[in-house]
Amino acid sequence: MINYVDTVWMLIATALVMIMTPTLAFFYGGLVRKKNVLSVLMQTYVILSVVSIQWILIGYSLAFGPDLGGVIGYLNYAALTGVGMDPIKGQTIPQQVFVLFQMMFAVITPALIIGAFIERIKFSGFVVFTLLWTTLIYDPMAHWVWSSDGWLAKLGALDFAGGTVIHILAGISALIMALCLGKRTGMTTGHAPHNLPLAVLGAGFLWFGWFGFNAGSALSVGPVTVSAFLNTNTAAAAAAITWMILDWIENKVPTVLGVITGIVAGLVAITPAAGYVKPMAAIVIGACGSIFGFIFVTKIKAQFGYDDSLDVFGVHGIAGIVGALATGLFATKQINPGGANGLFYGNPKQFLIQGLAVAVAVVFSAVGTFIIFKVVDVVIGLRVDNDDEYIGLDLTQHHEAGYTLME
Amino acid sequence: MKYVVAIIKPHKLEQVKAELEKEEVTLMTVVDALGCGRQRGVTEVYRGVKEVGNLLHKVKIEIAVNDAFLERTISAIIRGAREGEIGDGKIFVFDLNDCIRIRTGERGGKAIG
Q: A62, A66, A193: which is closest to A118 by C-alpha?
């Protein structure tokens, strides 16, 4: 039975998640050098378009079609065949609304990876990589965790809004891309963001959109929706403060970039837990997202020297893992009767299940991304030549300039 | 006293600065610039309208030096900026009449360093 209150909320939530992708474009765009700003905006908007079409053609069916051994969906729903206004069993919204909501998740996941290969990726190779990645990595993983027949879902893995499916997957894939592509030429210590206010605005709107991302993942309006909403805000705030304090202690100064990085780390960390935990747990989870994110971004990256340019691995990968594991600690049926209890509520097994889901996501995305990288790199090429990199991707890949130096 | 003006590729600035530092030349003025020499600009396209041969982004470094520092400065800039390709840039050298440090009123060679 369709509930139209639920339906209205899910349409709004879908629009909120949609705006996160253009918002991410400006978050990333502000952080790159000005000769590459358009390339980042272009990549995000093209992902929004390409994955939207891929999703209704085959993506939705691969992720949520009739189950094939818990591994993948049949193509019965390809081109949305037979997907209409009737709700899926157990849901109260038209299936097409569910298609749309999930579409926006499929869109933003590959968009997150952009941060690892900015300023050096070849556009043609990027488009092919994105299509293959979303089809071969994202769609199966979404099936495993979110389709009721998926093998990880059957094991009882909890992932409220995509800590594992989205952030770990994107974060690990980003690390592999950064390692495979190599460092940006002449880049030893990073560089100043060309437009930090743009990134700050981006972070603000990510926070805004994340309400749809997390609270929308309840797929209805009710107590769980409200819990997820409150936890989202709480974790973001706790993480922002935590990162600021760490910055203050370690680098002797509270920075704007630190605060917005903390915000994103907190939002990522609470994502898998949002609809399962109490607000006090959200504070801890948000703070831990920042603490581990901070360690990886400022210490581990410097030590190993990989050029994960905008810290997709350090923020999304690490905070995603923190959140997925923390879900196994703090989850409680008092908040979500449809969920499970975590370790702190007498169910240590849940923590192990969460750990397994994390390990599966890490291994699957690492191996899969490596193979896709190799194939696309050989067939099309994924890195621009040195000259193009120096001149910048805006002029060489798109023949446009983000800014004029003179009128 | 000489006034050295160098036009270089923007991404070479850090290397040029490092090379200059090795020669103990640390005072300079740097500005963003657009320029075209033999290197063709990149064609830009806006809604199908092409703008051919646009000026390329360059960086201009200006350094006032005492005569003893001139050759060291020039060779440092070349070491830092040279890729051996069209577009590496140019160095211009001018005679410098005078130099005044505003804070102290010192003039000439003493005011440069």
A: A193
